[in-house]
Structure formats: structure tokens, C-alpha cells
């Protein structure tokens, strides 16, 4: 049976959108029904069984719309499986794990999510916006470091976790059955 999964992203220059799309494609390939949405466009998470949320990192922070989404949906997220990722490192440090910003770490604990996984990002001179980004995109940080195999493997793990949780729910005896059995 397929689960309905929301993959929500917060991106400034597009790299995180590509990561979210790849996660969505992999989950669909495993039979899930998936919406991949800009987090700012998400109105309601009630229809979803599980949520994947990712943000680009800027100056070690998440985009504010992603933090706002976590904060506004703490209660609903607590009753769902939630996975977090951030996209950032480029250039020589592309394989380095980034710590979650303190506010995000606090909210992740509130909703019962494991720490965010780090995916390498992309800094493209063609799409860099803002003085600093354009400047950085001319140096050794420029380039697309996104690791599609790592991203797909993570999405496949998410699919396995969703399926495992569904199986354990099916096999749990219901209270009604217990009453009948005395
Ligand atoms: C001004 C600026 C600041 C950045 N700060 C960080 C950072 O603190 N940590 C990090 O891992 N990556 C950082 N990056 C790299 C971006 O996170 C990376 O390019 C990311 O893939 C951008 O995602 P987006 O295209 O979805 O906005 C920074 C990039 C720029 C231009």
C-alpha cells in the first residue's frame, strides 16, 4: 500500500529544488504518492503520512520559510514520520557534514526527527544571485557537487522506514480484538 509523502524544500538559487525532485522521484519509484513543493506553498500537511523537509544553508542557517514551517506545524509533525536534510557544502569541503542550526535542532527534537542529513550543494555562476554568491561562484567553490547516488540511497532508506512502520502498525493487535479474546 502506498503512503502519501510530502517533500518540501526551501531554496534560493535552485540547487535544493533539484535534490527535492530527486528524492520525490525515488520515493515514487518505490510506489509512494509524492508531492514535491516549495515549503512556502504548503497549506496543510494533514493529507500526508510522512514529511521530508530540506533547506539550503546560508551562513550556517536554514532559509527562514523552512524554519517557520517546522515551528508552525510542530503538533502535526509530531504524529508523522519526518526526515530533514540541508544542502550546502561546495568546493573542497563538499563532503563535510554541516551541523543543524540551533533553532532547527531544537525543533527537530520537538517533532521527534533525527538530525538533518547533509547533501553537498551547487554554486552555479549562471544562477548565483546577490553580490556575494556571484563572487563566490567565480572561485574554487563554483560547481555542482550534488551527489545523486547519495541522495537516491537516502530516499530509498526513507521508503524502507515508511514501509517498516506500516507493517508494524498492521500487525499490532487492535483493542477490539483483545476484548473479544477476553
Ligand atoms: C552567500 C552564501 C553563503 C553560504 N553559506 C553556506 C553555509 O553556511 N554552509 C554551507 O554548507 N553552504 C553554504 N553556501 C552554499 C549553498 O548552501 C549552496 O550553494 C546551496 O546548494 C544553495 O542552495 P540553493 O541553490 O537551493 O539556494 C553558501 C552560499 C552562498 C552563496
TrEMBL record:
Tell me the GO BP annotations in alphabetical order: heme biosynthetic process
Q: Which organism is it from?
A: Kribbella rubisoli
Q: Which Gene3D superfamilies match?
A: 3.40.50.360
User: Which taxonomic lineage does the organism of this UniProt entry have?
Assistant: Bacteria, Bacillati, Actinomycetota, Actinomycetes, Propionibacteriales
Per its UniProt entry, which superkingdom is the organism in? Bacteria
- Extract the InterPro entries matched here: Flavodoxin/NO_synth, Flavodoxin_dom, Flavoprotein-like_sf, Protoporphyrinogen_IX_DH
Q: Which PANTHER family match?
A: PROTOPORPHYRINOGEN IX DEHYDROGENASE [MENAQUINONE], PROTOPORPHYRINOGEN IX DEHYDROGENASE [QUINONE]
* Molecular functions (GO terms): FMN binding; menaquinone-dependent protoporphyrinogen oxidase activity
Q: Where is the Flavodoxin-like domain?
A: 5-159
Matching Pfam families, A to Z?
Answer: Flavodoxin_5 (PF12724)
| Name of this chain's protein | Menaquinone-dependent protoporphyrinogen oxidase
